[in-house]
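Thread: Uu.00g083320.m01.CDS01, structure

OP (GT): Posting the sequence first so everyone is looking at the same thing. Length is 453 residues per the record. Can we get the structure tokens written out before standup tomorrow? I want them in the notebook alongside the other entries.
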Amino acid sequence: MGRIIITNATILALDEKDTFLYPSYLEIRDDKIYSLGDTAPDFSHDGYTGATESIDGTDKLLMPGLVDLHFHTSIAKGYEDDLPLWEYLDEIWYPAIRALTPETARLAALHSYATALKSGTTTVNDMYRQLSSLASAAEQIGIRAVLSNDIALPEHRLDSVADNIAAFRAHHGSADGRVTVWMGLEWLPLADEALLKELAKTKRELGTGLHIHLCESRSELADCATRYGDRTPIQVAYDAGLLGPDTVAAHCVHLSDSDIELLAKTSTNVSINSGSNAKVGNGIARLGALVDRGVNCGMGVDACECHNSTDMFEEMKITSYMQRALHENAALGRSSQMLQMATVNGARALGVEAGVLAAGKKADIIIIDLKKDMMFTPLLKAPTESRRKQLESHLVFGCNGTAVQTVIVNGQVVVRDRVVLGIDEEDIRSQMDQVFADLVDDMESKRIQRPKH
């Protein structure tokens, strides 16, 4: 795979030692970070004989690629998106994803993964349909992807446990290990006790993880109390054996204290999705209470249908601002915490050896242009600690994904000078317009209405 050497850069490692280097170098060999430090060695005499690419890191920041812990491939961004969650799911989301074909799902994934990569996301935890198409798109474009199906009861015409097993056997560990397959449950209102038990059993047998929506809306809690004997969604998931360190529970907005205790007790990971939850009017997650109990919290953008953007820099800013506003406390949602959630916490939840810059870790790295549109101006050169804190503030509160210049995943450059190398971006854009126009006609003709809640 070769070697990449980046010199004269600023490095924000986000590791346990809170390593910050300026000026500095980083060396990649094959798919891993080989070395990094203050003073670059003489690479011409180190005995390496493979191909080497050199990148000048002057006025650039290196940091771990962002990990989107709750992601859905998107095809219907900006369409009829002013409805409450349940109504939106019934009227737009489910008809749209029922109408998918392998070809349209692959196109949507290429588009979604391209926008994620260009804004600095190197790993997505993507729950969607047509996983063979998603795996093919991830392999082509170069992103790291954890894929899961949209499992629900048969009458909802989504996916089955058998679908997810087939996807696991066909694609788990593909694309040089960049693609892994987890089980995925749409949510408890589209399930029953038997399905939950089957899912837990299958998850154990395959030795894989689970991606699930929990406690996203008050309507979900009301439905769950009726459907599952006056229990919360967290309690139902716990009783079914679905919680644990290999589970990512998305949203978790409406939690009781006992719910939080169960999440902590089982070491279940939580994805905080502040932008999505705000847009559809579902509320604000109890981030502080979760963190205080030791729950590993990452973050995700959810789907563009309910957020309109794959930009995780935007998500960090929204998450911090909402926590500060809700609790009237400017000490909450510190930039350092937001950056940890968007990188190392997400990687830990997914079992990915990335999320930090350290020797031996996967080379999932983004290079940010510190001169981009004066987003990082002013910026101290010294002392080092002041430069680090100012950079962290700029990253969370002052910039967006357009500052990302280069993206490296698994040791390969996949975005260079803001161009995604694995696709023809203009071709994908024009195809998406036509595919969506056709999809609207198709999904409207096949729409299935469920009772409003």
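GT: Both are above now. Quick notes for whoever picks this up: Confidence is low (pLDDT under 50) at residues 448-453. The domain at 3-64+356-420 is CATH 2.30.40.10 (Urease, subunit C; domain 1).
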